[in-house]
Amino acid sequence: MHLPRPERWRAFSSSRYRPFQAIAVGQAFTASYASDALFVPLLLRLGAPAALVVVVGAAPVGGAALQALAPQILRRLGGNLRGLTQGLALAELRGFVLAAIVAGVAAGVVGELAGIALVSITVALGQTAGVLSASNITLWTAVVLPDAERRLVGPRMGALTMALSTVLLLPAGVVLDAGTRAIGLWAYVGFYVVGGVASLLTPMAVARLPRPGRVLVAREAPGGAEVPPGFRRFSEASVVASVGMGLLPALSLYALNVLGMSAGFAVALSGVGAAGALAGSLAAGSFLFGGSSSRVLRASFVVRAVAAVACAAAIPANPLAPAFLLVGSALFNGGGNAGVLATNERLYRLVPAQARVHYQSRFVGATAAAAGAGSGIAAVALALAPPAAWAVYTALYAGSAVSRLVATIRTEVSASWSSPSSVPIEVPSRDDHEG
Fold this sequence. Notes:
- The protein is 74% helix and 0% strand.
- It is mainly α and 435 residues long.
- It has one domain: Up-down Bundle (Growth Hormone, Chain: A).
- The protein starts with 5 loop residues before the first helix and ends with a helix.
- The C terminus is likely disordered.
C-alpha cells in the first residue's frame, strides 16, 4: 500500500520549495476561475454553438504541440529557459482580460457575438500559453533539480493545486447559479477578477525559482540520435491515448447542452474532477518514488477507459445520468493526473539527462498534435449532427474508451510493480532543505 507520507510533505513545505508552492497555488486559481470550468457555461450562455466550444477547448491541447519547437527556441534565446518560462507565465493573468470582456458585454458596450469571439480568442491563446508554461516548469524541475527532489516536488505541486481547486470549485457552482440569477454576467466578472488577482502568484514565483543557468541544447545529427530503448513504443501508446483524450468533449458541455443541467452543476462537475485528480496525484506521487511508472501508466489508461464508459452510459433516458457524469469526471481526472505523473516519470527514466529537452519536447509535441486531431474530429461530429447530439457524444465517449484500451494493450510494462530503473530514494531532511 503506497499512502502519502507525511515526511515527504514536511520536506516539500520547507522554505526551499516556497516558489514551487506559490506556483501551485496560483495555478489552482487559474485552473478554477480562468479556464474550462467557467468558459464553457459562459460561451453557451452567450449563444456559442457546441462545436465552437469544443474547438476553443481543444486549442490549448493542440497548441501544446508547439513544445516540439522548444529546442530551437532555446537555441535562439541562448538557452534562456528562465526568460522563456517567465514570458509564458504571464498568460496565467488572463482572468483580468476575461473580466474586462465579460464586463463589456454585461454593460452593453460589447455585443454578444463580439464577446463570444473575444472570449474564444483569449481562452485559446491564453490557455495555450499556460499549457506551454506548465510544460516548461516541469522541464525546469527536470533540468535543475536532482531526481530525488524532482520526484518530491512535481507530484506535490500537482496535489496542492488539485486540493485547492477542489476547495475553490465545489462551492463555486452554488455561488455562480445564485449570482447569475441576481446580477447576470457580472457574476462571471467577479470570478475572473478573483482568479486574476490570485494568479499573480505564478509569474512572481517563477521569477524566484532556482536559476537553471543557460540550458544549452545541442543540435541533433542529420540522422538523428539513437532512440532510447522502449521510448518509441512508449511514445506510440501515448499518442493513441492522446487521440482518445481529444475525442472527449467537455463533460460540462454535455451536462449543459444535452442534460439541461445548470451552470453551477457544470462548475461542480469540475470540482469533482479536481477531487479525483487530487486522489490520483497523491496515490501515484507516493508510489512513483520507487514503483513502476509503466505499470501506473497502463493502469491509468484502464481507469480512463472505464470513465469513458461511465460517460457513455449517461444518456438522457438514464435517470442517473448526472451521477454517471460525476463518476466519469472523477475517474477521468484521477486516472489522468496519475497518468501525467507516470508519463513524466517514464519519460525521464527512459531518456538520458542530457537529452531530456529534446525528447520531452518531441514527446509533448506528438501527443498534443494527436489530441488536437481527436478534438477536431469531435468538433466536426458535433457540428454535423446536432439533432441527435446525445448519440454523437455517446459515440465520442465510446471512441475514447476504445483508444485507451488500445493504448493499454500497446503499453510495455516492467516485470513487477517495483521499478527496475529507480530504487527508493531517501528524501533530504527538512533541515537540509532549509540550511
